[in-house]
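Changelog-linked ticket: nicotinamide-adenine-dinucleotide example.
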Amino acid sequence: MSKTVSAFPDTFPADIPALLVKLRETYGSGRTRPVAWRREQLQGLIRLFDEREQELADALAADLGKNPLESYVTELSLVRAEAEHALKHLDKWTRSRRVPVPPGLLPASARTEPQPLGVVLIIGPWNYPVQLVLAPLVGALAAGNAAVLKPSELAPATSAALADLLPRYVDADAVAVVQGGQETSTALLKEQFDSIFFTGGERVGRIVLQAAAEHLTPVTLELGGKSPAVVLDGNWAVVARRLVFGKLLNAGQTCVAPDYVLVTKEAAPALKKHLVRAVAEQFGKDPSRSKDLGRIVNEQHWERLVGLLESGTILSGGHSDRGSLYLEPTILTDVAPDSPVMQEEIFGPVLPIIEVEDLDEAMKFIGSRPVPLAAYLYSNSAAHRKAFEEGVRAGSISHNASTVQLAVPGLPFGGAGASGTGAYHGKYTFDTFSQLRPVFTKGTLVDTLRFAYPPYTGLKKRV
Ligand code: NAD
């Protein structure tokens, strides 16, 4: 796939310290604290989506072959809705709240008030390169912070579009887009930030956490993993369509995509038949002609994915084309739990199916592996759903639908264990980029604390 050459050059790592000085000056001036400033930034982000939707969709198409409608639904409208939601609730979120004071400390008052953290760093991956830097930015700005964004170098057209457009819509002295790859990220991580919000893989997540430890910087890690889908019963056509939709969105390059299916031996024949049918329904007999199927991000990932096809028997799919980075949606059966496709997060249009006896065996299988970002159960039995919720640890659980749970702004989105730490979306993003500071106030006219002072022998007599 041809990639648009960035019109915006990468940031020189040597320029990063000066950039940080500028952002610190802005933050230190107090300019980002008033609610009016925060409101302007959120309005700016909304205008960015209203006025530049086409440019952003073009960049996403150049980087990932995304259909414009898919870009709109999974990236642009989603972040716009986050900004609208923050704008609507900003007054409520930023308000201080009184807290009751125990009788022994009266007269006095106590309150909590959300404070911005300072200058924050947001590092994004390539798979949803707009959403995954701008959705955190919504909360960072709503909370009154200055921010550095580091989009992924593997989505260069989108990274360049953000570097070009964002400063025109938000306060350019408070928000900077730094472009570049590993060297740039490494230079950024040497700097002291007040919070780091990282979305990406486990390997780099560890690097970020280590760098943050140096400055004792709080970190949110939005990582990935192998999200299982357990299939027990249901309307097979619907189950298959929802699995295929969740899996093949962005050509399978979605962090919460169902990575693999665990299906009971009893249900397996019906599920397989309907999965094959659902792929044809959504992408046609020859998916290479479909405008709705994205492409693999680069040759290295394409090669990795094509290699994974050897991990089982190909039930359907299997065709690929290096030149266009195309990989046909592929369903694999006879997959051994220790095969390569079951070791790493697939992150592509390959769906392995493993047969199990029952829900118990499926839950043991999931529990024996690192904690996934999401876990899906397809069943109409309330008892099975309850057992799944109690027996499975995951960043999120969704019943009878895959991937769409992340579009509910009232739900926190994040991992657990190996799939991440911290969460965001809606109010949770605001909380992630705020400190809930307690403030206690007392007068000095009468010393109502005197009973608490030493010597404690006296205190003993009084109590
Ligand atoms: P990645 O970890 O390779 O890269 C993420 C970011 O880290 C990029 O901006 C990259 O430039 C930077 N980076 C790379 N090497 C670095 C280093 N040595 N030091 C510092 N920074 C470095 O991830 P990716 O390949 O872009 O994205 C895919 C991964 O992201 C998958 O594992 C996926 O599950 C995960 N993901 C998670 C979520 C979520 O919300 N939890 C969302 C999307 C993707």
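Closing comment: Example verified and attached. The first helix runs from residue 16 to 28. The chain has two domains: 16-223+419-436, 228-405.
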